[in-house]
Amino acid sequence: MTTTELSGIGVRGQGRPARVVVASFASCFGCQLQITNIEQHLMDVLGQIDLVYWQLTDSTPMPEEFDIAVIEGAVTTEQAESQLKELRSKAKAIIAIGSCAVTGGVPGMVSRDFYERPSQVYPKVPHACGKMITPRPVSAIVNVDFETRCCPIDPYDFVVMLQRAIYGSNKLATTRTLCSDCKRNETSCFFEDGTLCLGLVTSAGCGARCVNLGRPCLGCAGLSPSANLDSARQCCERYGVDARAFDERLQLFNQTNPAVEDSDR
Amino acid sequence: MLYRVIDAAELPLLVSAFMQQYEVVAPVKRGRSYVFDAIEHPEDMVLDYPTTSASLKKYFLPPKETLMRFNAQTNRVAEHTLEVPPRVIFGAHACDINAINRLDQVFRDGTYNDPYYCARRDATLIVGISCTPADSCFCHLWDADEARFGYDLFLQDIGDRFLVSISSVEAANILESACNPREATDQDRIDFRHATRRRQASFNPGIPDIQDVAMLMDAFHKDDFWEELGSRCLSCSACAAVCPTCFCFDLQDRLSPDGKQGERYRVWDACTSPQFAQVAGGHNFRPEGRERVRHRMYHKLNGFLANHDRMLCVGCGRCVKACKADINPVKVLEFFKQKGADDASAA
Questions:
Q1: Considering only CB atoms, which chain A residues are within 8 Å of B63?
Q2: Domain span including residue A157
Q3: What is the ipTM of this complex?
Q4: For residues A61-80, average pLDDT
């Protein structure tokens, strides 16, 4: 579910700065923290909004009215699911940030046969866990207007999405995959020496950061909507990489993606 | 055309002379392949390199290029200066020079010039160098194995010497000042002919030489082959990123972090990207991989020829390596060869 009710129009224009809340579900809180890593631009960014609630820094209850909800984390409990629906009903725009919120991310890793898992960990599942449900990304429950991908997010990417929510934008999210970024960066392809890399199917946008640091893509940006999993498996075999290793690697960040769930069972 | 001969030992002097006035970019080894990059010393470059992983187009059409800046509050265009360093591309292969000639046809020699491209092109000297074809090279099939124009100097390796074709005064002056160019002798000419024959004999005979490719593209427009090829497209656009003649771009805006200033930039785009042919209202003229891959091959092997009298593909073979899904013009040639064999056996 990605249809937006904003239709390219931002939330501004009400004679006051956009009111923003930052909320978190199952996650490490790292992406919220990452926003502050924009450092010298932080005040510039805050100057464009009225930050009415930030879960990381705030113990007071979330206000009833706001314009933009920035949401981190995967939905893993019934309570979170209803909180998310409430956020959606109040917000004019929702920005999902980080792998957990966008793809199910790390919490999503356990989504297969999920209901058997808590009892494997706890003799008696603690009450504090809430009523657990299969982990899923924000977009599996409500419409999401903008996404800032990756684990963790790039704070500059987040600011771009925040500005699009405020000022409006009809820009399409790219469907390219990472391989084209590597070609632009002129880095050597891992497949040429038989090393698995998820760039074949992962959304472009990060600029192939891990590959630039000499490590293959793990898929934290999530599958491109145009990902061709069947062809990618054939590519693996063509370059001497076991296609089962490819499917296994997808479970790290993309376990809850229907394309992955459907294809490798 | 003027021809002179210099000794191979003089080459570093020529590169150093260019470095006095220009940024020199040349092939260098990076990772498992070769790339064009700025060099600081003549010995940094590797002139007997196989095709670089990406092409030279980045120096004329950068992957991301700011076209203008604007004040987002007043909605007015702000000051923006295009900075173009005077540059020498040293060691370009003939296919890559021919590719730049095709980009010139699009951006410089058409009805509407692209000022950004022209500024970069005009500030760049090109020194070509002869090469030995790699397994994935098929430039000879498109008549792109020889650069007839589009360079300032072209160095033909004839053993311990280079036969230098000179086609600009600017480069000739630098050659004259740095080296000791002499008239070509009969022996130089003989060695040049031998070198040319060696190159021509080195092409991979496994890549089919098909006549009338453009016509065959039309004849087999509806063949199932395109579904076979398109269905395995990964939609990654790696092919277009490495292609020396893929010139399509997208225009995008971005605001500064404070939201007060903005820039409009262009980024490389590709007709193999699923969104490429999506228009206002949401309709997509080429929603399927089959249509997109076929369209790209058509532009390379048919459409451009109709408008510009030459193939847009120069046979550099970069896509042969870059495409992990094994989609490239060689597959199209193999398909035509197979079709020809099928027809012959049916007749």
A1: 184
A2: 18-167
A3: 0.91
A4: 96
